[in-house]
Write a structure and sequence with these properties.
It is built from 14 helices and 20 strands. The strands form five sheets. Strands 14-15-16-13-12-17-18 form a seven-stranded mixed beta sheet, sandwiched between helices. A six-stranded mixed beta sheet has the order 9-8-7-10-11-19, sandwiched between helices. Helix 8 links the parallel strand 10 and strand 11. Helix 2 packs antiparallel against helix 5 and helix 2 packs across helix 6. The structure holds NADPH dihydro-nicotinamide-adenine-dinucleotide phosphate and the ligand O=C(O)[C@H](O)CS(=O)(=O)O. The site of ligand LO4QSZO4 has 9 residues, from helix 5. Belongs to the aldehyde dehydrogenase family.
Length: 485
């Protein structure tokens, strides 16, 4: 069905301790193509027992993986990177089939994720310790860094490849072992990564992929098993809070990449055409299903009309369709429930006085399709303002002053990504420093890359992924005090 050059990449079993297995219960789950409703694959659906075996296997494999030199681990990660790049076209087809995003976006995601493997293969060599000035003549102080140990990970459906790569890369580079649970709606990309990990020489037990519709049971095992020393999660804030609480009993190190409510501010000194381009990619990438999408578009009143007109025209030019087709800009949402959620948000706004500028809504293309929509006349009484839209809806807000824009932007419990377009250098510094977010795009709508620290503050999470900071989450600091010198 997918016409893969390498059909071996499409797997129907879980990958645990180097074995491709059925679930203990024989249970299976169907992976559905959101564009067509067709079943892409029927795969093993595992539970807590298989998860426990994967964790135990990861613990057994840890000493040998930990004791490799960083150069030996780096070579395996780089070989894995090369295999992913060589298979990018097939991996993109698998990703689009299970998640729906346009093929070009899927390929970009595959390479974006692979870039973390390349990056951390090198960063591991720079995990330096310290020699500290001795407190007395008879002592010497040294600080070394060592891998945390067995890591467990749960990731969401919206970036089924890159979200795992962004975690497994620093973990394995640091000398940790890794058990991944992808979202049950999009497991195939993770299993394809495991095929290539095996080929790259990642030893049995170092990287396992547990798939199952009983995410609660799998997560319970991951967050309470004492062998797991680090738990990393990407997903909604609500689930992140629950999982972080479950980790408390065994005091695991945790990193949480959670929800967002990104402001996208257009000031009166912005280049309006550039701001429109930035807003389009920032809002409608992955059909608006990213945690860093523009969730509130704030436009200064003197340029509101010209921006709204140009932006609406650009939105209406976007092509909605099956992500496998040439020229499609926006694919389906992940499932019919997601369509209902965004429709309810638009209906709430309209009921409180907002206007559906381009009459966007559910599409006859299929039950997972929603046409890119622009809503104006929006205010903070509407759910669109407070909730993460996670869909192709662009709400436009009008503001008058710089201070008001910053106040509106910060009026949320989230603090992940934020964006603004302006050209006055004083304004750029004032606004960049005033926004309470982990990341700020300035005259730029796409800010994610492996060399930068991705992450949020407030209830958008803890920790950073990527950059020179990203490996710290997978290392422990050990202080050696030598006496009797
Ligand atoms: N900050 C960031 O980098 C990102 C944040 N997100 C946020 O995630 C949300 C969208 O993704 P979505 O998948 O719906 O998020 P969810 O939080 O619902 O699911 C994320 C993952 O958690 C699993 N899960 C859900 N409930 C539990 C549970 N009780 N115990 C263990 N695992 C559980 C899911 O498994 P299953 O699906 O199989 O049930 C999935 O693998 C948005 O809020 C978005 O902002 C998404 C991506 C990146
Ligand atoms: O899951 C997400 O939303 C991603 O973190 C967005 S990005 O890293 O691809 O920008």
């Amino acid at each position: 069905m997918l016409n893969l050059k390498n059909p071996d990449l499409l797997r129907k079993h879980a990958y645990i301790n180097g074995q491709w297995i059925d679930s203990d219960s024989g249970e299976t789950l169907d992976v559905i193509n959101p564009a067509s409703g067709e079943t892409v694959a029927t795969i093993a659906s595992c539970g807590a027992d298989e998860t426990r075996r994967a964790i135990e296997g990861a613990n057994e494999a840890w000493p040998e993986w930990r004791d490799l030199t960083v150069k030996e681990r780096a070579k395996i990660l780089r070989d894995w990177y090369n295999l992913i790049v060589d298979n990018a076209d097939d991996l993109a087809k698998i990703l689009t089939a299970e998640q729906g995003k346009p093929l070009a976006e899927a390929r970009t995601e595959i390479l974006y994720g692979a870039n973390y493997l390349e990056w951390f293969a090198e960063e591991a060599k720079r995990a330096y310790g310290d020699v500290i000035a001795p407190p007395s003549k008879d002592k010497r102080i040294v600080v070394i860094k060592q891998p945390v140990g067995v890591t467990a990970s749960i990731t969401p459906w919206n970036f089924p490849s890159a979200m795992i790569a962004r975690k497994v890369a620093p973990a394995l580079a640091a000398g940790c072992t890794f058990v991944a649970k992808p979202a049950s709606e999009t497991p195939l990309s993770a299993l394809a990564m495991a095929v290539l990990a095996e080929q790259a020489g990642v030893p049995k037990g170092v990287f396992s992929v547990v798939v199952g519709k009983s995410s609660r049971a799998i997560g319970k095992e991951m967050t309470t098993n004492p062998l797991v020393r680090k738990f990393t999660f990407t997903g909604s804030t609500a689930v992140g809070k629950q999982l972080q609480a479950q980790c408390a009993e065994t005091i695991k190190k945790t990193s949480m990449e959670l929800g967002g409510n990104a402001p996208f501010i257009v000031f009166d000194d912005a280049d309006i055409d550039e701001a429109v381009k930035g807003a389009i990619v920032c809002k409608y990438r992955n059909a608006g299903q990213t945690c860093v999408c523009a969730n509130r578009i704030l436009v200064q009143e003197s340029v509101f009309d010209v921006f709204a007109e140009k932006f609406s025209a650009a939105v209406n030019a976007l092509k909605l369709g099956n992500g496998m087709e040439e020229g499609v800009d926006v694919g389906p949402m992940i499932n019919p429930g997601a369509v209902n959620d965004v429709r309810a948000l638009v209906e709430d706004a309209i009921s409180k006085g907002a206007k559906n500028l381009n009459e966007g809504g559910p599409s006859e293309l299929g039950e997972c399709f929603y046409t890119p929509t622009v809503v104006s006349g929006v205010d903070d009484t509407m759910k669109l303002f407070r909730e993460e839209i996670f869909g192709p809806i662009a709400p436009l807000y009008k503001f008058s002053s710089e201070e008001e824009a910053i106040q509106i932007a910060n009026d949320t419990e989230f603090g992940l990504a934020s964006y603004f377009y302006a050209r006055d250098i004083g304004r750029i510094w004032r606004v960049a420093e005033g926004l309470e977010y982990g990341m700020v795009g300035i005259n730029e709508g796409i800010i994610s890359n492996e060399m930068a620290p991705f992450g949020g503050i407030k209830q958008s999470g803890t920790g950073r992924e990527g950059s020179k900071y990203g490996i710290d989450d997978y290392l422990e600091i050990k202080y050696l005090c030598m006496g009797g010198i």
